[in-house]
Amino acid sequence: MPASRRGSGSIVLPSGQTMAMHTRTHDEEDLPHATKKTMADHLRKYESLFTLTPQRMRMIVEAFKDTLELGLSKHKQTVPMIPTYVFGWPTGQEKGDYLSVDLGGTNLRVCLVTLEGEGKFEVTQTKYRLTEEQKQEEGQKLFDFCAECLKTFVDTNLQDENSGLKLQPGEKLPLGFTFSYPCTQERIDHGELIRWTKGFGAPNTEGHDVAAMFRASLEKFELPIELTALINDTTGTLIASNYVNPKNKIAVIFGTGCNAAYMEYVKDIPKIHDVGIGLDGQMAINCEWGAFDSFEHEHLPRTKYDQIVDETSNKPGEQAFEKLISGRYLGEILRLVLCELIDEGVLFLGQNTYKLEVPYAFDTAFLSLLESDPTDELLMAIGIFTHFFALETTLAERQFFRALAKLIGRRAARLSACGIAAIVSKMGYLEEGCSVGADGSLYNKYPGFADRVHEGLQDVFGDKGRNIVTHHAEDGSGVGSAIIAAMTKARKDAGIYVDL
Ligand code: BGC
């Protein structure tokens, strides 16, 4: 028998929970478990459901490219290809102190960013966890909470006698507000929320200018702060990663949600030709690609589990691409497969499965843990199933769970590669190659995610796919938002498109 690591211990999950691990010397024989062969037969079925062939990927890329073009040419498309009013790349010489508030899918972050030029910066930040209730309460209340956290941050970090930051009477600190949800922008300090994503549902916010709502909250707290730019996390990531490495031409986020941004030629954004911007410039585009194939579901390989995730979400039909990829949903997809096997009497016979039957009980972090388990006996899986779900498992079952996690994680990475490939191909970046700044929990923490994206790019493009390389990006929501605030100030000071 091969040697295995034995013993007990505990690990802390990203959610903050502690998980105990212990080794068994034999599998339970008193409970009726599925045989190795049964699990292998089931695995074959899921392999065919979740595997994406190179040919299918290339078809998806073609449809994706058409969708990107359509979004650039007409307003109100499913993939809205949002002009961000971030004109061109940073010089790398942007300097100064900037505040940023980042309302992400999981946390609220407040940062003070000091840009030092030459691609250098310093960041001081505080993070606050958002509760599920906050995501559903009145929109204005949510922005008030953001302003309140900002006030605490300013009081703690900027009013200090020793801090270098002293405001002149009447002076206001520029703030970049990173609001990572699809917003139509008419200028850089404006953004009408098209729809909430990532499980948010705060009423009286969709269809409203969220920059104006946040300004109202800032006034309530009498903060000496001016909202200079409203940005998306992908746009921030695009600019921040180009600030430190000008080879970065695309930014992607694979976290609770998923999305991409890139720099487009204004002449190739027909829908804004009447706004009065010279056609020779460039503007960053927030693709909002999570919405690809929403509503019509023509191009993506959705399984019945994906359909259940969609139908039981607070936004059925929407964010079809995101629901196959992002960290918010992968755990739930796996959980639904397990529930099906419970219903069919294959798994956990004679055991109480109620804990696993709770929607979203299976965290996407569990997939990462299952995949990265280094032990022959799959101790991590034992730990997850006993500690969180009070379920006994056999080695054959645990091997099946790990294989299933791999199928779901790999499909997510390969679909992500399709999105990147669509932008690369549309912009003609393949021959000369380009670097893609990537961020988000899935990209940063899921074992092998980046390698699978790269493998996917080669499946789409052949050997030339190697020219496209993703790497961990700079902090877009903090640093990127500060650079954009600085670029905007410099542009307006120079009298360029001052009303945009
Ligand atoms: C949002 C995007 C965001 C992405 C990553 C998506 O759900 O619609 O605006 O960039 O998540 O955070």
From TrEMBL:
Pfam families xref list: Hexokinase_1, Hexokinase_2
UniProt xrefs under InterPro entries: ATPase_NBD, Hexokinase, Hexokinase_BS, Hexokinase_C, Hexokinase_N
EC number: 2.7.1.-
Gene Ontology MF: a single term: mannokinase activity
Reactions catalysed according to its record: a D-hexose + ATP = a D-hexose 6-phosphate + ADP + H(+); D-fructose + ATP = D-fructose 6-phosphate + ADP + H(+)
Positions of the Hexokinase C-terminal domain: 249-487
Annotated metabolic or biological route of this protein: Carbohydrate degradation; glycolysis; D-glyceraldehyde 3-phosphate and glycerone phosphate from D-glucose: step 1/4; Carbohydrate metabolism; hexose metabolism
SUPFAM superfamilies: Actin-like ATPase domain
PROSITE patterns cross-referenced by the UniProt entry: HEXOKINASE_1, HEXOKINASE_2
A GO BP entry: intracellular glucose homeostasis
Alphabetical keyword list: ATP-binding, Glycolysis, Kinase, Nucleotide-binding, Transferase
Gene Ontology CC terms: cytosol; mitochondrion
Domain Hexokinase N-terminal: start-end pairs: 43-243
Superkingdom as given in the UniProt entry: Eukaryota
Family, per entry: Belongs to the hexokinase family.
UniProt xrefs under PANTHER family: HEXOKINASE (PTHR19443), HEXOKINASE TYPE 1-RELATED (PTHR19443:SF16)
Protein name in the entry: Phosphotransferase
